[in-house]
Amino acid sequence: MNSDADRHVQVIGIGAGDPAWLTLEAVRALEALDVAFVFQKGADDELAAARRALLPEGVREVVIEDPPRGRGAEAVAVWRAERVRLVREAVAASDGNAGFLAWGDPTLYDGLIGVLREAGFGVGVVPGISAVSALAARFGVALNRVAGAVLITTGRRLEAGWPSDADDVVVMLDAGLAFRAYPDAEIFWGAYLGTPDEMLLSGVVAEVGAEIERVRGAARLRKGWMFDTYLLRRASSA
Questions:
Q1: Total structural domains in the chain?
Q2: Are residues 144 and 49 in the same domain?
Q3: pLDDT tens-digit profile of 182-238?
Q4: Could you report the average pLDDT of every consecutive run of 10 residues in the chain (238 residues)?
Q5: Does 3 reside within a domain?
Q6: Residue 28 needs a FRET pair 20 to 30 A away by CA distance; which of 11, 133, 146, 176 works?
Q7: Which one, of 11, 7, 8, lies nearest residue 36 by Cα?
Q8: C-alpha separations of 106 from 11, 167, 197, 214, 233 in Å
Q9: Is residue 228 part of a domain?
């Protein structure tokens, strides 16, 4: 099995949902593939189907069944180690130009680059339009204000308190809806960006927070998964 860094694998950012968000570089990278690896969670995985729909004719698809992931640091470590093993075996057994299609931008809250490096492969990365960029574009706002800082973080970190050095915070991976602790902040919230299920809500948290919670919960129940992110903006201290 050839699993050293002499074997390079492409990680191609395909954007946050809309096929039109593919960059020219991503299109060329997809067309150059001989084999594409697709993580799949069950037969009805919508995200796997969306990746599959972007593959050019003639590219061979290899499905990797994504192992189940439990809660807690130990369970995540076990899940990641199993992912590394599956990737190592799948890539080493393939020939030609190989690649993975990464949702959004593979350099932002996506562990695939690290998994491939742990598996012993060299990595080439094609950036994509992230959910963060798509969110700001949908609302027609900039992520930061004049001379201000913006922080990209998780809901769990926001629960510990608002960062001291940023008035504008982009939050990802927030199953706990940490924005509820900041009723006076302005929120720009989006889910399933770029897809037919896209949802957008904005306003002061005290006024729209309950509606976000309602539609988010209903959508997650209906689809079985949730991809959302939001920009939270408090009154500037300047």
A1: 2
A2: no
A3: 999 999 999 999 999 999 999 999 999 999 999 999 999 999 889 999 999 997 644
A4: 68 94 97 94 81 92 85 85 94 94 94 94 96 97 91 94 92 94 97 96 97 97 93 77
A5: no
A6: 133
A7: 11
A8: 7, 26, 22, 30, 25
A9: yes
Q: How far apart are the first and last CA of the chain?
A: 59
Q: Could you tell me the residue range of the domain that residue 92 belongs to?
A: 8-129
Name the token pair of 199.
């949802």
Q: What is the rounded distance in angstroms from the CA atom of residue 82 to the CA atom of residue 79?
A: 5
Q: What is the CATH number of the domain that holds 34?
A: 3.40.1010.10
Residue 171's DSSP bridge partners are 153, 230
How far, in Å, CA of 113 to CA of 107, rounded? Answer: 8
Which residue type occupies 175?
A
178: three-class secondary structure by DSSP: helix
3-state SS of the chain: helix, strand, coil percent to 5? Answer: 35, 25, 40
CATH of the domain at 173: 3.30.950.10
CA distances from residue 4 to 10, 36, 118 in whole angstroms, order as listed: 15, 19, 10
Residue 31 identity? E
